[in-house]
Specification:
mainly alpha, disordered C terminus, 7 helices
């Protein structure tokens, strides 16, 4: 059985294509929103960058002082070592904290962006895809069952099916007297109603 992805009946075909397009557009919008969330949250890394800069400045200051005193006789090396240790304990810790915060912010930005896209996209697809798959299966089965609708006996049977199973409000769109058409052997309107309800256009049915 070949698959029919879209109805061949013009109105239903346009409607289905519009719905598919809206779903794709919604996914693009969600991706755009997720990107915006990531960029917004990631801007918080500017705070850790500033802290990192301050810590580096403190560490560099102690390092410069240590270099200046390192040549002092007797106690120069001891003071230089103490200053370098103080720089590492103060400014170095601040730098490490800033780097840790920066990593956490990036991870948070990625997580929130993923949640912004994945959760609503998953809900949308779970609601729409099964309906769309069901439509494709019905279209494909209808093309198989209603093929060769131009054969007189097949048209009579299809007309009977239409008259007995389709809603009255659908039948009257094609005939003012559906049952009378069946009695008189006038099958065109009934067959057209059946095919339209299935989403098929008679000229586009397969034969054989």
């Amino acid at each position: 059985m070949s698959w029919s992805w879209y109805p061949s009946e013009p109105r239903q075909r346009r409607s289905t294509m519009v719905r598919d397009g809206l779903v794709v557009l919604a996914l693009f919008v969600l991706a755009w929103l997720a990107r915006g969330v990531f960029r917004l949250v990631d801007t918080l890394s500017a705070v850790t960058d500033a802290v990192n800069g301050a810590g580096s400045s403190v560490q560099d200051g102690f390092g410069a002082a240590a270099d200046a005193l390192s040549g002092t006789p007797v106690i120069g090396d001891d003071i230089a070592g103490a200053l370098e240790s103080a720089g590492a304990a103060s400014g170095g810790n601040v730098v490490d904290l800033a780097l840790t915060g920066d990593t956490a912010i990036h991870r948070l930005a990625l997580l929130l962006a993923a949640l912004t896209f994945v959760v609503p996209a998953l809900i949308l697809l779970l609601l729409y895809v099964p309906v769309r798959v069901g439509q494709v299966k019905r279209l494909s089965a209808s093309r198989l069952v209603y093929r060769d609708e131009h054969e007189p006996e097949r048209r009579r049977l299809l007309a009977m099916r239409a008259a007995m199973s389709l809603p009255a409000d659908h039948l009257v769109k094609f005939s003012t007297d559906p049952i009378g058409d069946l009695v008189r052997g006038e099958h065109d309107a009934l067959v057209a109603a059946l095919l339209s309800e299935a989403g098929l256009a008679p000229a586009q049915l397969t034969t054989g």
